[in-house]
Every structure is written in C-alpha cells, then in structure tokens.
TrEMBL record:
Pfam families: Ribonuc_L-PSP (PF01042). It comes from the Bacteria. InterPro entries: RidA, RutC-like_sf, YjgF/YER057c/UK114. PANTHER family: 2-IMINOBUTANOATE/2-IMINOPROPANOATE DEAMINASE RIDA, PROTEIN HMF1-RELATED. Gene3D superfamilies: RutC-like. This is RidA family protein. Belongs to the RutC family.
Length: 423
C-alpha cells in the first residue's frame, strides 16, 4: 500500500502554529493525529485571559478550528486526552467539554501532570478519524463507520465511551480501578488497583469479541513510580494472555509515566490501543480479515521483557516509550537533558530503521519531560531529528520517569505497506 498512503500534514491560521517544530494535524491512512492544544489565542499567540474554564474553552476552540480546516467535524474525534495541572479543575473542564460533545462522546483519558507548556492550566489532545484515508489523489475507503460500545461489565461514564473503533483500531478510555458492580474503587493497594484496571480492559474487549492479546499499546499512569514493581507483578499475569502469545512471548508496546494525580485519587490508570482485525465497514473482506500483528525488537535499542519496542498493525506502528538508555550498557547516558534527549531519539531512530522505515514516517511524538523549563534545550536536539517539523506533538511535564530519567519520547509511526493478512 506504499503508493496509496501519504503523511499529510496540515496547518490553519485559525489555531496556534507550531513555530516550525510540529504540525497541527498529521493524517496517515485512516487517522489524523492532532497536536495537543494549549489555551493559546491564535491571534495573539498568548494564553487567553481568565481561569480554567476559559482556558479549556480555548483548547477546544483550537481543536475545532483544526478539525474544521480539514473538512471534518467534532464527532469524528475517536479519543480525547485531557491534561490538567490540578485534578480538582476537571469538573470545570467537563462543563466546557459537554458543550463540544453534546451527544456522542469519544474515548477519553484524564490525568493531572506536574507542568504544561507556558504554565497553562489545561491541555487537550485529539485523535481524529479520517474516512477518506490519505491517498494522494483518490479516496481510499469512503466514509467508514465509527463503532462505539459500552458494557456494564466495566465502568461507564456519561463523559466517555469505553471503546471507539474506526478502521483497524479500537481506542479504549483509560481505565480506573473501579469495580463496575459497585461503582467504587476496589479495596486494597496498588496491586489490587492495577488488577482491576486490567480486568476492566479485558471486560471491554470481551464485550466486542476481541482477544486480550490484540492490544498493541499500553500506557500506564501511576501516582508513584516506586509502585511499578508491584504493578508489573500483576501486569505479567495478564500478558501474554493466550497460548499463541505465550509461545512467542508477545507483550504490547508500553509507556510508563508518573502522574501528579489521577481521577478519584487512584493510584494507577491504564490506557489501551487495540487492533481491530475486522475493521469497520465498508472495508472489503479481503482488506479486513486476519491482518497480522507484527511485534519487533532490535539490539540497537533498549529491550524489556515487559514491552515490545514496536508493534505494527495495519497502517500504524506503535513504539514503546524510549528512555535515554544506552542499549549497549542498559544504563542512562552521561550528561544532561540534551544528551538524554539525543539518546531517546537515537533509540527511536534505531527502532524505526530496524523495520525498514525512516524518521519521516513519524506522525506523532509525545514528549514527557521532568522539567518543562528544559524544553528549549530539548528542542535544539529535536530539530536535528525532525528538521521539517512534520509530526504532530504533545509535551507535558511529569513528576518522575522510569530510571530517574529527565525525558522520555513516545512515537507513533505510519506503516505504509501495512501488515498483511495471514496466508
């Protein structure tokens, strides 16, 4: 399919520009990846006046301007991620949110982080379906159907849909450790909470007849990174799930970060991206059945028994979060944030090249940085790897990162040839 998909980056004057560092919207195949939107007035380039509600409204206005500029509508959004500085502000954000999604609600993740660019109180990110695909000259598949589903066997919310499928992917709302029978947190500590998060994910997947091992990417937000050893004990009992997966020791790509806070005071929250082999209609049978998940690791980047470096399905590759680890030693590189940023991106590049792709195939970059003030130094390095500033981008300041790193990069990559159906 390499002749029928293209990375299509778009920008509009009606939303804040990326100053050459990133594009507002980057489409590939059936998805548009939007850069996370800050509450910046595009006419001034500055934060809007007011408090959290005014900032939230500006974030959503910016998203809507981008969506409108590429001839889409807000109901084409399949996933929303809300980052706030103070978890107590979520109620005010939700009041604004409801006005933009009065009927249909996408999958959603909400997390409080240590810092946001420009000292904003809120930042909102959207992933958008792209029905016509990104063929340079012709429609790819017309208006594909977006499938939404909720099951009583997992927690439900009026503000989000448990899973939203479009084309060959399902995006799940981040799952909290809520027992769906009581609507309350499970009793116990972080292990019990981690188990409940994963049970909720499994219940959602079972409700749409999707096996657990169809998960291609997991993102874990924890209140305290010191809890990850306990979380991993539970995690390892869920992955691999099936006999086939155990045979090849399949585990999804994965990113782990420490959150400043989580909804309802949770200790852990988990988000999943899932392959959708059947696709959504009107994809033809030969285009949607039995597509293979490709999981790949290279010796030229750090390895982990708990994650796969890159997992491809259909027209996307999802990479695990890359830390500034030297793959030869398994230790953090010497130096400061510039050296660490460079090593992260070297690891990303090594993984991409190991699957016969190039950095220009990257459609989305997520940057998690320990000190948001370091971003000027990070950007100096970033420009050398992405000189055209094409990928969409998200930057958040986090409380802590694994290995006490100063920075971590998480990347989504277009997979031009797709992954084939089983023979």
């Amino acid at each position: 399919m390499s002749n029928y998909n293209a990375v299509s980056a778009k920008n509009t004057e009606n939303a804040p520009n990326g100053n050459g560092l990133y594009s507002q919207s980057v489409a590939f195949s059936h998805y548009n990846n939007l850069s996370a939107q800050l509450p910046i007035d595009p006419s001034t380039g500055k934060l809007v006046a007011g408090g959290i509600k005014e900032q939230a409204e500006q974030c959503f206005n910016n998203i809507k301007a981008i969506v409108d500029s590429i001839d889409h509508v807000m109901s084409d959004i399949v996933r929303i991620t809300v980052f706030v500085k103070d978890i107590k502000d979520v109620d005010a954000v939700d009041e604004v949110y409801k006005t933009y999604f009065p009927t249909y609600v996408p999958a959603r993740t909400t997390v409080a982080v240590a810092a946001l660019p420009m000292d904003a109180m809120v930042q909102v990110e959207a992933l958008l379906s792209h029905g016509v695909g990104s063929i340079p000259n012709a429609p790819q598949a017309g208006d594909l159907v977006k499938l939404t589903n909720n099951t009583p066997n997992a927690p439900t919310s009026a503000l989000s849909t448990q899973t939203v499928a479009f084309s060959h992917y399902n995006y799940l709302s981040a799952q909290l450790p809520i027992d769906p029978t009581t609507g309350r947190f499970v009793i116990g500590g972080v292990q019990e909470q981690a188990r409940q998060c994963l049970k909720n994910i499994k219940a959602i997947l079972e409700s749409i007849d999707v096996p657990f091992d169809d998960i291609v990417k997991m993102t874990i937000f924890v209140k305290d990174l010191k809890d990850m050893e306990a979380v991993n004990e539970v995690y390892s009992t869920f992955f691999p799930d099936s006999a086939i997966a155990r045979t090849v020791a399949y585990v999804p790509a994965r990113t782990v970060v420490e959150a400043a806070d989580l909804p309802m005071g949770a200790l852990v929250q988990m988000e999943a991206v899932v392959s959708h082999g059947d696709g959504t209609p009107p994809q033809a049978i030969e285009d949607r059945h039995g597509i293979v998940i490709w999981a790949r690791n290279t010796d030229n980047a750090p390895k982990s028994s708990l994650s796969t470096q890159t997992v491809a399905f259909s027209h996307y590759n999802h990479l695990s979060g890359q830390l500034p680890l030297d793959p030869k030693t398994g230790k953090l590189v010497a130096g400061g944030v510039k050296e660490q940023a460079e090593q992260c991106l070297k690891n990303v590049k090594a993984i991409i090249e190991s699957i016969d792709h190039v950095m220009e195939d990257v459609v989305k970059v997520n940057i998690f940085v320990k000190n948001i003030a370091d971003m000027d130094a990070v950007d100096e390095v970033y420009k050398t790897f992405f000189p055209g500033g094409t990928p969409a981008r998200r930057t958040v300041g986090v409380s802590a990162l694994p290995e006490d790193a100063l920075i971590q990069f998480d990347v989504v990559l277009g997979n031009a040839e797709g992954t084939p159906p089983q023979a």
